[in-house]
Amino acid sequence: MSEAAWNSLINAAIAICWGVFAVVWIVGHVYNKRHSPAVTRRTLGNARWLVVGAAVVILLRFVPPTDWQDLSVHSAWLRWPGLVLLVGSTVFTLWARITLGLMWSSDVVARSGHELRTDGPYAVVRHPIYAGLLGMLVGSALLEGFGRWTVGLVVAAVLIAVKTRAEERLMTEEFPSEYPRYRRRVPALVPVPRRR
Q: How far apart are CA 166 and CA 159, in angstroms?
């Protein structure tokens, strides 16, 4: 495949995967605002995530592409794994979002009649949306040779670590007998088999 064809494929894959993700999240957010059960507990809001996200977007937008060259690794053998990881992670993330249904929130919350999901992607990892997002970022980084994606990866890893910890605490409090058993059985982010 020629370099121009690869670049077109890379740009299309990244645009389609992240575009579909954005549309599903926005539509889901609007729908859930109107139809989800009432929030009974909130432990972590979205304001800080929006500020950090905006700062990263501004950084990535205004730093010239040539300044990212020192962080770039251009290698053809990274592209196929990157493409597979990006597409697979996008599907996994959307599957997790759809599985949560009306219990989903971008905040860390418990809802009236909250259900602990342990099926579908939640049988693979406890936090499949975050695992999928990290996979999408790594896949995008592999496709473009890291560079500017390195900043997004680092920031996302920190934010996901904080949010995962908050969710673990909340779920343990909401489901004191079920969640510890689920936690022992299913890994947090990386789908590594555990001994029974």
A: 11
Beta bridge partners of 110: 41
Helix (H) or strand (E) holding 119: none
The more confident residue out of 22 and 50 is 22
The tokens describing 131, both together, are: 């695992």
DSSP-assigned states of every residue in 55-110? HHHHHHHHS-GGGGGGGB---GGGHHHHHHHHHHHHHHHHHHHHHHGGG--SSEEE
- Helix, strand, coil abundance in the chain, percent, nearest 5: 70, 5, 25
Q: What are 61-92's pLDDT values in tens digits?
A: 777 777 777 677 777 788 899 999 999 999 99
In angstroms, how far is the first alpha carbon of the chain from the final one? 46
The CATH code of the domain at 3-185 is: 1.20.120.1630
Q: Which of 56, 175, 39 is nearest to 108 (CA)?
A: 39
Domain residue limits, the chain: 3-185
